[in-house]
Design brief:
The complex is a heterodimer of chains A (about 230) and B (about 575). Chain A is about 30% helix and about 15% strand. Chain A has about 230 residues and is α+β, with helices and mostly antiparallel strands. Chain A has 2 domains: about 80 residues, Ubiquitin-like (UB roll) (Roll); about 100 residues, Alpha-Beta Plaits (2-Layer Sandwich). In chain A, the strands form 3 sheets. A 5-stranded mixed β-sheet of chain A has the order 2-1-5-3-4, with helices on both faces. Chain A has a two-stranded antiparallel ribbon with strand order 6-9. In chain A, strand 1 and strand 2 form a beta hairpin. The radius of gyration of chain A is 21 Å and the shape is elongated. Chain B is α/β, with parallel strands linked by helices and about 575 residues long. Chain B has 4 domains: about 130 residues, 3-Layer(aba) Sandwich (Glutaredoxin); about 200 residues, Rossmann fold; about 80 residues, Roll (Ubiquitin-like (UB roll)); about 100 residues, NADH-ubiquinone oxidoreductase 51kDa subunit, iron-sulphur binding domain (de novo design (two linked rop proteins)). Chain B has 25 helices and 14 strands. In chain B, strands 2-1-3-4-5 form a 5-stranded mixed β-sheet, with helices on one face. Chain B is globular. Classes of the chains: A alpha+beta (about 230), B alpha/beta (about 575). Chains A and B meet through helix 2 of A and helix 19, helix 20, helix 21 and helix 22 of B. The complex binds flavin mononucleotide, iron/sulfur cluster and FE2/S2 (inorganic) cluster (FES). Iron/sulfur cluster binds next to helix 20 and helix 23 of chain B.
């Protein structure tokens, strides 16, 4: 039952199978729509709103990563309103989160000519690094809440459900049930969450220790003593 | 139960009632309880007993009588006489109402009363003196009091007439009659048709036509469907839905059952905000009673229609009133909205077609079917039919709960019903729609209150909260308050709302503190536009409304603040 729909993207007629998202349709047509939270292997949730486009007749800007192409839709992916919104969105993210180790977002800050000082009143969130297991650290000061880690941990990949949400509003943060340390959760240390994190908020322990100035030998020594401690 | 059993119960109740020559109805709603209504009721009952009037005077609890700021309220009904409502009924006043109004024959004169302190003649003698000395005059609210006279009670018609906790009392006033008739004489499509004809629109805020929503749930494929009553009511100062659930729980349940029949659902949930313990208690009690009488559960009125209802209690997050977040919460997940479509009508609770309406919307259903959709459509304006309940709060003489026909002007509500602004202050603005709404200035007081007129002014009808502000209120500060509320209540899911509302709040703080400049004001407007257009759900999409509407009507107040801010920054 696959029917096709034809829509107009930036003035160009494009035909795609029904159910195709605007993002996929745009990419198929060779148009670049920027994304931050979207990941090809995760359920799209429309969180970052970077991919918003203008659909004729719609009051609101539409997230291209979720909204399906409709017959006769007229879409602007680069209108001035869209560009301005994207710029403000990265500026907002930059005001709230430490993006120093998020290369993709950095590139977008540059591309959109973002003013990094646009919101001088902002206070970035600065929760302490959580170092509660031998495999990876969680530095939520760098987290943009793209939800990828939560989703690969849940029904997008691993079905482990070790990660959830804490707090709300500006203080929303990824966490574990009752803030338990990672080893006490259902976590199986598959590493998928670290793999999909776009900002280095989740980081392999070794990489982090190296950044902290430890030498590879010191790190090896740490793991040896850790193993010895375990055996006892 | 069979439909004819309703008459049997009604008859029994009426016979019972005729045994009394007077009824004292004491408000038992949260507002009056907080001003001491429990003690008032006890005193009424004790005094009646003391004077051995128990067989002729009935004391009972009833729902909110409206003028909550003057509570506890007590109503006296005597056959053949106009009702009298008493305000500010403390225990002492309660005793006097019984002693001065309800003791028919004063008996022997004071001089004859020497048989001991506790026998009847003695008591009556002391009453004699009391009656001569005092009067209840100051406590009587006359029936022609504009607060009452301008109202039209359709949804709240039974409030102040029946005991919220007694199913039989509701039945004796026609309760569950609409359900009996619908199940035995109407098709589900017929019910949908009637609601469509009535012109009813959702009372939860957005004013979506209820008949259209029912029709799409009815038409959605699937044999398992749900009905949800949204009683999350998060707007600061609003308590229409609390009153519905506390005072007329059966009317809400009957509306839900009718909706379930119409759309083809088998189960329903009432989602009640956790801060409403009395509503939860009364709903629980009512659901149990309805099951016991066969008004819920299997094969209602001997038909094939079965309907189960359960309660879900929220944890006080404002966003859980948003329908998709609410459903996530009912499913046991974190209450966060998701993109629509798919709408709940297609894919709702556990992926099934789900009808979600506000509790006040459900409370309208039985009255519509009882008196006919044409009658209902005759009330209100062209596009907003029926009546609406509002909670009046703020700088107003009479604050409380009112029900008025759609299309009354704001002026009539504020000055006639509300009694105007106290202390000789001037009216400045009325805020409708809570954190998603806007502020309407004095020059628009003559606008009729309906969905479309309020929206045209940049405010919304919302769920029915109305906050009145006088000349002493600073509008930028009001905007700051609501922005703080939205920033706190944002679920944190999408960037424009999570970060944008926080930044808007920061900017407003700076401006209100007199430290902002014109550039901050421009930034605030730009940001408001972004948050409004790119947020995921209606919380973010409407969060800028209080700011944008105050900027529209009270720009001079912002300008004055940023002018002083700019001056402060000027090097001396
Ligand atoms: C942030 C937010 C909060 C809401 N809170 C409520 C609420 O407390 N009660 C309610 O009935 N509707 C609330 N709504 C509206 C619901 O999403 C939904 O539209 C409504 O329950 C539908 O019922 P109706 O058609 O009878 O109006 C809220 C919406 C949003 C976006
Ligand atoms: S607009 Fe606000 S409340 Fe709605 S999804 Fe986004 S963050 Fe959550
Ligand atoms: S990529 Fe679409 S919202 Fe983030």
């Amino acid at each position: 039952m696959s029917t096709d729909v034809t829509l107009t993207l930036d003035g160009r007629a494009v035909t795609v199978p029904a159910g195709t998202t605007l993002l996929q349709a745009a990419r198929q047509a060779g148009l670049e729509v920027p994304t931050i939270c979207y990941h090809a292997h995760c359920t799209a949730n429309g969180l970052c709103r970077m991919c918003v486009v203008e659909v004729e007749g719609a009051r609101l800007l539409q997230p291209a990563c979720i909204v399906a192409a409709g017959e006769g839709m007229k879409v602007q992916t680069r209108s001035p309103r869209v560009e301005r919104s994207r710029r403000t969105l990265v500026e907002l993210l930059n005001s709230a989160v430490d993006l120093s180790e998020a290369p993709e977002v950095q590139a977008q800050l540059t591309e959109y000519g973002a003013d990094r000082e646009r919101f001088p009143e902002a206070e970035r969130r600065a929760p302490p690094v959580i170092d509660d297991n031998p495999m990876f650290v969680r530095d939520y000061a760098k987290c943009i809440l793209c939800w990828r880690c939560v989703q690969v941990c849940a029904d997008d990949a691993q079905y482990t459900f070790a990660l959830s949400f804490d707090g709300r509003g500006y203080e929303t943060q990824i966490g574990t049930f009752f803030d338990k340390p990672m080893p006490e959760t259902t976590c199986v240390f598959c590493g998928q969450c670290v793999g999909v994190c776009p900002t280095n908020a989740l980081k392999p322990k070794r990489e982090w220790l190296l950044q902290q100035g430890q030498t590879p030998d010191e790190i090896m020594a740490l793991t040896r003593s850790e193993r010895r401690r375990r055996r006892r | 139960m069979q439909p004819s059993d309703l008459q049997t119960i009604t008859h029994k109740e009426q016979t019972q009632r005729q045994k009394h020559r007077a009824r004292l109805l004491c408000c038992g709603s949260t507002a009056c309880l907080s001003s001491g209504a429990a003690e008032t009721r006890d005193t009424l009952a004790r005094t009646v007993k003391l004077h051995q009037l128990g067989h002729e005077v009935q004391v009972m609890t009833t729902g909110c009588l409206g003028l909550c700021s003057r509570g506890p309220l007590v109503k006296l009904q005597e056959p053949g006489q106009p009702e009298v409502t008493y305000a500010g009924v403390t225990a002492d006043v309660a005793r006097r109402i019984v002693e001065e109004q309800l003791i028919p024959d004063l008996g022997p004169s004071p001089e004859a009363a020497d048989a001991g302190p506790h026998d009847l003649p003695h008591l009556r003698a002391s009453v004699h003196k009391a009656r001569a000395a005092r009067s209840l005059h100051g406590h009587v609210l006359p029936a022609e009091h504009p607060f009452f006279a301008r109202q039209l009670k359709v949804v709240l018609a039974l409030n102040g007439q029946i005991d919220p906790e007694r199913l039989e009392d509701y039945i004796a006033h026609g309760g569950y009659g609409a359900l009996a008739r619908a199940l035995t004489t109407m098709t589900p499509d017929g019910v949908v048709e009637a609601i469509t004809l009535s012109g009813l629109r959702g009372r939860g805020g957005a004013g979506f036509p209820t008949g259209v929503k029912w029709k799409s749930v009815r038409g959605a494929p699937g044999n398992r469907k749900y009905v949800i009553a949204n009683g999350d009511e998060g707007d600061p100062g609003a308590y229409m839905d609390r009153t519905m659930m506390e005072d007329l729980p059966h009317q809400v349940l009957e509306g839900m059952a009718l909706a379930a029949y119409a759309v083809g659902a088998q189960s329903g949930y009432v989602y009640v905000r956790g801060e409403y313990p009395l509503a939860v208690k009364r709903l629980e009690k009512s659901i149990r009673a309805a099951y016991r009488q066969g008004l819920l559960g299997r094969q209602i009125f001997g038909t094939d229609f079965s309907f189960d209802v359960d309660i879900r209690i929220g944890a006080g997050a404002f966003v859980c009133g948003e329908e998709t977040a609410l459903m996530a919460s009912v499913e046991g997940r974190r209450g966060m909205p998701r993109m629509r479509p798919p709408y709940p009508a297609q894919s709702g609770l556990w992926g099934r077609p789900t009808l979600i309406n506000n509790v006040e919307t459900f409370a309208n259903i039985a009255p519509i079917l009882n008196r006919g959709p044409e009658w209902y459509a005759g009330i209100g304006t062209e596009k907003s039919k029926g009546t609406k309940i509002f909670a009046l709060a703020g700088k107003l003489t009479n604050t409380g709960l009112i029900e008025v026909p759609m299309g009354l002007t704001l002026r009539e509500i504020v000055f006639d019903i509300g009694g105007g602004i106290p202390n000789g202050r001037r009216f400045k603005a009325v805020q409708t729609g809570g954190p998603s709404g806007g502020c309407i200035p004095a020059e628009h007081l003559d606008v009729p209150v309906d969905y479309d007129s309020l929206r045209a002014l940049g405010a919304i009808m919302g769920s029915g909260g109305m906050i009145i502000m006088d000349e002493d209120s600073s509008m930028p500060d009001v905007a700051r308050f609501f922005m703080e509320f939205c920033a706190d209540e944002s679920c944190g899911k999408c960037v424009p709302c999570r970060v944008g509302t926080t930044q808007m709040h920061r900017l407003l703080q700076k401006i209100v503190a007199g430290q902002g400049g014109p550039a901050d004001l421009a930034k605030l407007e730009r940001l408001g536009d972004l948050v409004r257009r790119s947020s995921l759900c209606a919380l973010g999409q409407s969060a800028p409304n209080p700011v944008l509407s105050t900027l529209k009507y009270f720009r001079h107040e912002y300008d004055a603040l940023v002018a002083s801010g700019a001056a402060a920054k000027e090097p001396a």
